[in-house]
Amino acid sequence: MVKKLVVASNNHNKIREIKQIFSKYPIEILSMKEVGVNIDIEEDGVTFSENAYKKAETVYRILEQKAMVLADDSGLMVKGLNGEPGVHSARFAGEHGNDKKNNEKLLKLLKNKDRESRKAKFLCTIVLIEDLNKVIRVQGEVEGLICEEERGSNKFGYDPLFYVPEYNMTFGEMPAELKNSISHRAKALEKLKREMKKYIEREI
């Protein structure tokens, strides 16, 4: 039996990544829009985990517990900016989801900063609610550096600025398959799959 899993998001890039990573599992991945949930959930938590749980629980209750719900909160933490933008990554420049302005602000704040200050990591926390008595929390991260200019054709978020030394390229330059295998979200989802393995096998 195919299980339904609703992602508490309408972000096409995020949902595409999750679908690719879960492609071998008997799980139907649906966005909020696809299940008729049309709300904005205020992300007012002080941690990624708080924000992810709030989104998952809100959608789970709206759906009257008829599907598993997954939510994530992720962001960029830069050493030279004391961990900023952190939970404010999507609205770093003041306008939610404006990647161009967010990247411009980040570059401006790091102008003339040394390599140590440009050290950064992407962090992703995922919360999956199977039922209100079973909540799974996992976290993944990937370390890198912030470039002095955008690189690559993938303009999603901070990807064109996030340089991974061991691959000598930014997330923005990486093929989707490579990024999805090493990203913070991929690492969190791998942990999630291990947590869910027995549950999935029991239900199918």
From TrEMBL:
<comment type="subunit">
    <text>Homodimer.</text>
</comment>
<comment type="function">
    <text>Pyrophosphatase that catalyzes the hydrolysis of nucleoside triphosphates to their monophosphate derivatives, with a high preference for the non-canonical purine nucleotides XTP (xanthosine triphosphate), dITP (deoxyinosine triphosphate) and ITP. Seems to function as a house-cleaning enzyme that removes non-canonical purine nucleotides from the nucleotide pool, thus preventing their incorporation into DNA/RNA and avoiding chromosomal lesions.</text>
</comment>
<feature type="binding site">
    <location>
        <position position="74"/>
    </location>
    <ligand>
        <name>substrate</name>
    </ligand>
</feature>
<feature type="binding site">
    <location>
        <begin position="9"/>
        <end position="14"/>
    </location>
    <ligand>
        <name>substrate</name>
    </ligand>
</feature>
<protein>
    <recommendedName>
        <fullName>dITP/XTP pyrophosphatase</fullName>
        <ecNumber>3.6.1.66</ecNumber>
    </recommendedName>
</protein>
<feature type="active site" description="Proton acceptor">
    <location>
        <position position="73"/>
    </location>
</feature>
<keyword id="KW-0479">Metal-binding</keyword>
<feature type="binding site">
    <location>
        <position position="73"/>
    </location>
    <ligand>
        <name>Mg(2+)</name>
    </ligand>
</feature>
<dbReference type="InterPro" id="IPR002637">
    <property type="entry name" value="RdgB/HAM1"/>
</dbReference>
<keyword id="KW-0460">Magnesium</keyword>
<feature type="binding site">
    <location>
        <position position="42"/>
    </location>
    <ligand>
        <name>Mg(2+)</name>
    </ligand>
</feature>
<dbReference type="GO" id="GO:0036220">
    <property type="term" value="F:ITP diphosphatase activity"/>
</dbReference>
<dbReference type="Pfam" id="PF01725">
    <property type="entry name" value="Ham1p_like"/>
</dbReference>
<comment type="similarity">
    <text>Belongs to the HAM1 NTPase family.</text>
</comment>
<dbReference type="InterPro" id="IPR029001">
    <property type="entry name" value="ITPase-like_fam"/>
</dbReference>
<keyword id="KW-0546">Nucleotide metabolism</keyword>
<dbReference type="InterPro" id="IPR020922">
    <property type="entry name" value="dITP/XTP_pyrophosphatase"/>
</dbReference>
<feature type="binding site">
    <location>
        <begin position="156"/>
        <end position="159"/>
    </location>
    <ligand>
        <name>substrate</name>
    </ligand>
</feature>
<feature type="binding site">
    <location>
        <position position="179"/>
    </location>
    <ligand>
        <name>substrate</name>
    </ligand>
</feature>
<feature type="binding site">
    <location>
        <begin position="184"/>
        <end position="185"/>
    </location>
    <ligand>
        <name>substrate</name>
    </ligand>
</feature>
<keyword id="KW-0547">Nucleotide-binding</keyword>
<keyword id="KW-0378">Hydrolase</keyword>
